[in-house]
Amino acid sequence: MRDETTPTHCPYCALQCGMNLRRGAVSGPAAEPVVEVAERPDFPVNRGALCGKGRTSPALLSSRVRLTGPLVRSHATGRLEPATWEEALRTIADGLRRTTDVYGADAVGVFGGGGLTNEKAYTLGKFARVVLGTSQIDYNGRFCMSSAAAAHNKAFGLDRGLPFPLEDIPKTGCVVLVGSNLAETMPPALRYLTELKENGGTLIVVDPRRTKTAEQADLHLAPRPGTDLALALGLLHEVVAQGRTDEEFIAERTSGWADARAAAMAHWPELVERITGVGVPQLREAVRLFCDAPSAMVLTARGPEQHSKGTDTVSAWINLCLATGRAGRPLSGYGCLTGQGNGQGGREHGQKADQLPGYRKLDDPAARAHVAGVWGVDPQSLPGPGRSAYELLDALGGEVKSLLLMGSNPVVSAPRAAHIEGRLKSLDFLAVADVVLSETAALADVVLPVTQWAEETGTTTNLEGRVLLRRKALDAPEGVRSDLEVLSALAALLGHEKGFPADPEEVFEELRRASAGGPADYSGITYRRIADENGVFWPCPEGEDPKAAGVHPGTPRLFLDRFATPDGRARFVSVGHRPAAEEPDAEYPVLLTTGRVVAQYQSGAQTRRVDELNTAAPGAFVELHPQLAERLGVREGEPVAVVSRRGRASGSARITTGIRPDTVFMPFHWPGEGRVNTVTNPALDPTSRMPEFKVCAVRVESVSRAAAQ
Asked: Which residue, 624, 625, 588, 609, is CA-closest to 671?
């Protein structure tokens, strides 16, 4: 059999790096094809570069580490036992129907994931609202960038992670990177910051840890966790005090400046220094670097966003851009670095509690009428907005009796995770579709094995708003079906034999019609265009563009002529600092913050099954400053526990001067004793409903000393 090469994209983060998959001859005792990753230098985002996760991604295609047949929990043994597809699908349909018949449609919940393709996210939302008639659908992307999305919509009238392509970053004069460790979370993207500095630009990194990314910075600001809002307001105060505002831009292209200015002026530098721990000279140096540059950008990630005030925090950083005229202009602006592989597209097309395809609002009568027309249903039949992700998970076993879950592992990833595990166990019925037997799938009544990225075709939308095409490179093992096939079969069993095709391109064609005229308009995008153009940026309406010859070219750069608000002006949002939902006290005197490491991804359900990655990052650890370690009597490598009001997690001590003395850090990729989200706080942002993953009060204990006592 000759080698076959297929151009496609990495299954992990929102860079969606281009790669070639080379399929060789069948070999080995499992008679599986050899699949290797090769560079794809023609794709502009990563230009051939890949991190270790992307390079080793074919390891998960092996039947040794994945599910290859349905499992149904036996009433006799209580264990998950092999079953036929017909038995498994019938069990799910009966379970969902039984719940609806007894308790009503909203007693059934649906939970999706930011890794699902656009076609899957679209179909899952349609399935929930048309087949099940439930409002109770949300997805784990709520835990990713919902705060930035809410702030984007408030300020600009439109949410797209980056309003410009990544290629613009090295060409600007200054980048303020807030709460992102690109060197570990998106290694191929670090080259954009390296090229920025090579081109004479400056880099300011805001992070309580001196990460590998912060080491590249011209200026590193290390605020106390939970104080990014005060920091942004202090910088804006200093901009005003130094007379560095762009009054012409403010007058011509914005509204609401007076109130936002007044709010910022209440945060004078000395006060901000007391709140954040960032010295006044550093604040002034940051303003000088930002304002002296001919153009500048602010990029945020989960650091400032995963807070109970994340929306206000992002709004404050956007205010800084607007006040200095660093938005709606070439090589300037605010952008959010989306995390999950399809975190952008995943929320645009209907699996979020309050949204319909095309980023339409579910409570908008015109939006309901348009989408209902595409779906061939009465607009009145569509349910209204449901619970947000954490609120939905918290309602399991109470008002929500059954759950269909696709592409998520909340037992590890949700805040207050032990509580959520208990809620999942209290359900009358749980069905999970996944590639592997995750910690959440292990609790299910039915587990369905589904195809992976290399075994299916479908689109994703990366952090730039570039719609991409993943291409099928090989067949899945016998006994594995796609999520679209699952939803199509379940819809038929529940009385909807039409309207739920399993062919991804057919689904995408319907998605195009459903999104037409919406904020995220994909109607001018086709599989062929994506392949020919290396991706197409939305919005891309169907038909001719009056500014260009022929079809609409897509929109790599937003807001250059006007913002997406009714009057075309960006809106300042007046915000003020407030403390985190939970502050340290005598019992819990230390702050905990969380994040990722380079060798693992999200809940680790997949990467922990790759030997090379697991060797590089085998387990949880606790990063703490030497002063704190000395006070606790903790040595390097010693097991320590981090304890909050909600639970405890443990890992080996890593002692470093790269973290603040009042703060500890843990990554969130591991279950069991290292499950840090047992500790984290589910306090929610009032607008985005984002949980406060990034800060809570804890105490640190020596495990060995506690055992000796």
From this structure: 609
- At residue 23, the pLDDT reads 85
**Distance from the first to the final alpha carbon of the chain:** 64
Q: Which of 468, 427, 250 is nearest to 341 (CA)?
A: 468
Q: Token digits for 465?
A: 């708003």
Task: Say whether pTM exceeds 0.90.
Answer: yes
Q: Give the model's pLDDT for residue 2.
A: 47
pLDDT tens across 76-88, in order?
A: 999 999 999 999 9
Q: Are 110 and 124 in contact (CB under 8 A)?
A: yes
Residue pair 382/372 in contact by the 8 Å Cβ criterion: yes
Is residue 483 left, alpha or beta, with left meaning phi > 0 and alpha meaning psi from -120 to 50?
Answer: alpha
Q: Position 12: which residue type?
A: Y
The answer for residues whose C-beta is within 8 angstroms of residue 537's C-beta and 6 or more apart is 165, 464, 465, 466, 467, 554, 555, 556
Instruction: Show the beta-strand stretches assigned E in 348-406.
Output: 355-356, 360-361, 402-406
- Four-point Cα dihedral 513, 514, 518, 521, nearest 10: -50
The answer to whether 640 and 699 are in contact (CB under 8 A) is no
CA angle 289, 293, 295 (to 5 degrees): 130
Distance between CA atoms of 352 and 128, rounded to whole angstroms? 11
Are the C-beta atoms of 136 and 110 separated by less than 8 Å? yes
> pLDDT value at position 671?
96
Distance CA 97, CA 447 (A): 18
- Asked if residue 642 lies in contact with residue 664, where contact means CB atoms within 8 angstroms, the answer is yes
Chain centre to alpha carbon of residue 226 = 20
* C-alpha triplet 245, 251, 253: angle, nearest 5°: 100
Task: Quickly count: other Cβ atoms within 10 Å of residue 212's Cβ.
Answer: 15
Provide the β-strand partners of residue 571: 255
Among 153, 178, 173, 177, CA closest to 163: 153
Residue 669: what residue type?
H
Residue closest to 58 by CA, chosen among 116, 6, 2, 14: 6
Cβ neighbour number for residue 506 with a 10 Å cutoff: 12
DSSP code string of 177-225: EES--HHHHSGGGHHHHHHHHHTT-EEEEE-SB--TTGGG-SEEE-PPT
CB 693 within 8 A of CB 602: no
User: Which ranges in 403-517 belong to alpha helices (H)?
Assistant: 410-413, 417-425, 483-493, 504-515
Asked whether 620 and 656 are in contact (CB, 8 A), the reply is no
Q: Is the dihedral of CA 91, 92, 97, 100 positive or negative?
A: positive
Q: What crossing angle do the helices spanning 310-323 and 228-241 adopt, rounded to 10°?
A: 20
C-alpha gyration radius of the chain:
25
**What integer pLDDT is reported at residue 453 of this predicted model?**
95
β-pairing, 696-702 vs 639-643, is antiparallel
Lookup result for tokens 């942004």: 232
Residue 590's alpha-carbon distances to 140, 392, 585, 683, 701, in angstroms, are 28, 30, 8, 18, 11
At 375, phi and psi to the nearest 5? -80, -15
List the chain residues with pLDDT less than 50. Answer: 1-2
Spatial separation of the C-alpha atoms in residues 658 and 294, rounded to whole Å:
32
ω into 365 cis (within 30 of 0):
no
User: Contact 201/176 with Cβ under 8 angstroms?
Assistant: no
Report the greatest alpha carbon distance in the chain: 78
Query: What is the CA angle 34-187-333, rounded to 5?
Result: 130
Token pair in block for residue 430: 């749980």
SS3 label, residue 237: helix
Q: Which residues contact 263 (CB under 8 A, 6 or more apart)?
A: 233, 574, 575, 576
